[in-house]
Specification:
It is a single chain. By secondary structure, the chain is mainly α. It has one domain (17-338): Hydantoin permease, CATH 1.10.4160. It has 17 helices and no strands.
Length: 449
């Protein structure tokens, strides 16, 4: 199997895929144990229907934003880290690519920890033996790292296998739970721990890093239309389904561990296999994107080598308990990474005639205008984050979703700086980022799978 994933260049047109193939990957990524963890948390900290509507609203916003970020990836054919190089400059993009790789590596470690916890529960149920969680975390991390090493093609094959099984398991679990306990528990009162806006922010933060790095998968789309459709379907459906199902199951079965709930439903054996596949597909992609981001720092860095090194580090961090800081971690990711997505979409929208995104084109060492817009987006996200919900000050409220605040502000600030940039530095403004014209995606293609 070829391992060429074009980490330093453009995905050739003859290697591009249909929308369903890419959407399936995003759905497989979305159906994971971190979504289940969040669903259980919302079930115990919110009334039932507000939790469901917050999940749908947050996932819908993710899907809409993914339309824009996926479009950029498909037209340029570049990874998100290579896009950061075009927008932020050689050094600025390298710094951001490093930050992205660290964030993705942290997410890989957290997800490996979730895998270890649930695999340990399943193993104990089957055998009665109490094997330490870190052993399962390490085993799972190695499996995920192997698939990430082989790249997009192996991720696609794994996702096509996992998604039908995942959807079938979730549907059967809901039917069995309702038949066992009915619906009365759905309306049981709970202590209110999350505001509606805070819940939307958590839902979005769960997958906001995926939206910002959507070009890593969207660059494989046959056309921009394929990319946009796959982004919306994948992020909206993929992010919402596991959270909704977990909220329902946690309420009906009065449980706090999804794997334990499946055993209570008599679906333990099936759930073990299917949820292992779910976590495998999700975390493989985290490490894959981390490797792409790190490789973008320098043309001398090979993605496969970066994936191996980062995988070893991520497994070690997961083994020592990164999953214990899950909620705090996804909130920080939302604040820091989300504005990046807004900035590069604005850069693409406002500078489509410049040469900077053409493969091999020269870029400045640092693009201070882009970095300024990104930093303002981060500051606004910090300012709008309630201290009781995460790292922030809660000085004012915009959308009630800090991650979305940062992305919108990053987008608007970049656009607002364009006229000033043209006056102060006309040469730099003339070379603002545009789509690559080497191996471009077709702009007139349909959306057939």
């Amino acid at each position: 199997m070829t391992t060429d994933d074009y980490e330093h260049g453009v995905v050739p047109q003859d290697q591009r895929k249909g929308w369903l193939s890419i959407a399936t990957i995003w759905i497989a990524i979305g159906i994971d144990l971190s979504g289940a963890f969040l669903g259980v948390a919302l079930a115990s900290g919110m009334a039932f229907w507000p939790a469901i509507w917050a999940t749908i609203a947050g996932s819908l916003l993710l899907g809409l934003i993914a339309i824009a970020t996926s479009y950029v990836g498909a037209v340029t054919g570049l990874s998100s880290a290579m896009i950061s190089r075009a927008v932020f400059g050689k050094v600025g993009g390298g710094i951001l690519a490093f930050a992205m790789s660290i964030s993705l590596l942290g997410w890989f470690a957290v997800q490996a920890g979730f895998f270890g916890t649930n695999a340990q529960i399943a193993f104990t149920e089957f055998t009665g033996m109490d094997i330490p969680v870190p052993i399962f975390t390490g085993i799972g991390g190695v499996l995920m790292a192997v698939t990430a090493f082989w790249g997009y093609r192996s991720i696609n094959k794994l996702s096509m296998l996992a998604v039908p099984l995942l959807l079938l398991l979730l549907l059967v679990s809901i039917v069995v739970a309702f038949s066992m306990n009915g619906t009365a528990a759905l309306d049981a009162p709970v202590e209110s721990l999350y505001s509606f806006g805070g819940a939307i922010s958590l839902v979005m933060s769960l997958f906001i890093l995926g939206v910002a790095t959507a070009p890593d998968m969207a660059r494989w789309a046959k056309t921009p239309k394929h990319a946009m459709l796959s982004g919306f379907v994948g992020f909206f459906f993929g992010n919402s389904i596991i959270i909704v199902v977990s909220v329902v199951l946690a309420r009906i079965m009065d449980g706090t561990e999804l794997m334990a709930i499946f055993f209570a439903l008599g679906l333990g054996a099936v759930a073990v296999v299917v949820l292992i596949l779910a976590q495998w597909t999700t975390n493989t992609t985290n490490l894959y994107s981390a490797g792409l981001a790190f490789a973008a720092i320098s043309a001398r860095i090979d993605r496969r080598t970066a994936t191996v090194v980062l995988g070893i580090i991520g497994i070690a961090v997961g083994v020592i308990g990164a999953a214990d800081y899950f909620v705090e971690f996804i909130l920080v990711i939302g604040i820091v990474i989300a504005p990046f997505g807004g900035v590069y979409v604005a850069a693409f929208a406002s500078g489509r005639k410049g040469p900077r995104w053409a493969h091999g084109a020269a870029v400045p060492t640092v693009d201070v205008w882009s970095i300024a817009a990104w930093l303002v987006g981060i500051l606004v996200a910090v300012a709008t984050t309630d201290p009781s919900h995460g790292p922030g000050f809660g000085w004012f409220t915009l959308t009630a979703v800090p991650a979305l605040d940062g992305m919108i502000v990053g987008f608007l600030v970049y656009l607002a700086l364009v006229p000033l940039r043209r006056k102060v530095d006309p040469d730099a403004a003339a070379s603002a980022p545009v789509a690559s014209e080497e191996q471009p995606a077709r702009l007139d293609g349909g959306v057939s799978a």
